[in-house]
Amino acid sequence: MRTRAAVALEAGKPLEIMEVNLEGPKAGEVLVEIKATGLCHTDEFTRSGADPEGLFPSILGHEGAGVVLEVGEGVTTLKPGDHVIPLYTPECRECASCLSGKTNLCTAIRNTQGQGLMPDGTTRFSMLDGTPIYHYMGCSTFANHTVMPEIALAKVRDDAPFDKICYIGCGVTTGIGAVINTAGVEIGSTAAVFGLGGIGLNVIQGLRMAGCDKIIGVDLNDDKQEMARKFGMTHFVNPSKVDDVKAEIINLTKTDFDPMGGVDYSFDATGNVKVMRDALECSHRGWGVSVIIGVAPAGAEISTRPFQLVTGRVWKGTAFGGAKGRTDVPKFVEWYMDGKIEIDPMITHKLTLDEINHGFELMHEGKSIRAVVEY
Ligand code: NAD
Ligand code: AHE
Ligand code: ZN
């Protein structure tokens, strides 16, 4: 079949909207009509050329929602008409990682996924002249139709709006999951969140759900304050307006009983390795836990004095908020439909596929939280 897609032809270039060929689903695969997709900073990271795994030409996008149109041979858990959210972290429930009970990082298809291919080592997308187009994060939601492995689709209730629940495909689950799955934040804690964009706001929302007492937001852009306060931020620091962001945060947590200060939990949602260091070092001596969410460019490395860890701080990372996609994503959709989590105010812009490059401009200008393309 043919479908319309925004194709990343070369690193650093705007996406090009075009008709592409899409082969039908092979064994274990599913054809999905994508109804809506969010633009995550990770798409921009790869588009820009900063991703060491970036491949071109490819169809980016990994934060989608849609409907199953056709299933390949052997598919048993999905049928045409089912509503689904694509999973860049699949859940096969059979590999060593899935069965470990210790991680959400299913390894069943990671190798081919990283090479922009379906599990059989081939691509379903091609240009009209036959040039192959790579898949992206196993999802490629910047196409109106895509083919995905069955294990990489979460079936969700069919009355949930696509233009909102697409955000559960990455940002919402990553932010809230980082708090509840990865950090395990307890009621009454203090926390600092670096980067108040599409991920950081969901960390804040998760911290409020977890019963955090003090939620300190950090961003270079003052305009991000207002929305963050609505989601539960209690204090704000703009690092460009203070001498030492770490000292500011530590001072905000000092009490007579605990004059040393430092947050119980900190989160990097910027992808900047210097910020990651600040996030670790503003956490409390003896027990502070700092979670890296941001994705850093090729070649970037983190550093700190080992003394920071010797004195009890813990540095952790999280992918997709530690969520097991097929099990947890339907629950996030239920929470949204029951009003337990908020999504609507964070979808600041709605675009057509033809306007997708404007979505990346809004991201760069700091004007959007999530821009969503509706097909
Ligand atoms: P975004 O562009 O919406 O938000 C980033 C925010 O960080 C912006 O508000 C920006 O002003 C702020 N910022 C940038 N540099 C800063 C600095 N030095 N100090 C303080 N604030 C700064 O991006 P997003 O979609 O929220 O993504 C955030 C990061 O999370 C990206 O690196 C993205 O690739 C990554 N990410 C990781 C996962 C995962 O599973 N680990 C999932 C989704 C996104
Ligand atoms: N390709 C990058 C790594 C990118 C990365 O870490 N991706 C996250 C999800 S970001 C979603 O917005 C992830 O899931 N990582 C686990 C994995 O297996 O990729 C690089 O640096 O090579
Ligand atoms: Zn993402």
- CATH H-level superfamily title of the largest domain: Medium-chain alcohol dehydrogenases, catalytic domain
Radius of gyration: 20 Å
Structural class: alpha/beta
What count of structural domains?
Answer: 2
CATH architecture assignment name of the largest domain: Alpha-Beta Complex
Shape: globular
- Counted beta strands: 17
Instruction: Bin the helical content.
Output: 25-40%
Helical run tally: 12
The CATH class assignment of the largest domain is Alpha Beta
What is the chain-wise order of helices and strands? EEEHEEHHEEEEHHEHEHEHEHEHEHEHE
Describe the structure.
The chain is of the alpha/beta class. It has helices at 41-48, 96-100, 110-114, 162-165, 171-183, 200-210, 225-231, 245-253, 273-281, 306-310, 325-337, 356-364; strands at residues 2-7, 16-22, 29-38, 63-71, 83-86, 125-126, 132-133, 145-149, 153-156, 190-194, 214-218, 235-237, 265-268, 289-292, 314-317, 347-351, 370-374. The strands form three sheets. Strands 3, 4, 5, 8, 9, 16 and 17 form a seven-stranded mixed β-sheet that branches. Strand 1 (2-7) and strand 2 (16-22) form a beta hairpin. The protein starts with a strand and ends with a strand. Zinc ion binds at residues 40, 42, 62-63, 170. Residues 198-335 form the Alcohol dehydrogenase-like C-terminal domain. One of its GO terms (biological process) is formaldehyde catabolic process.
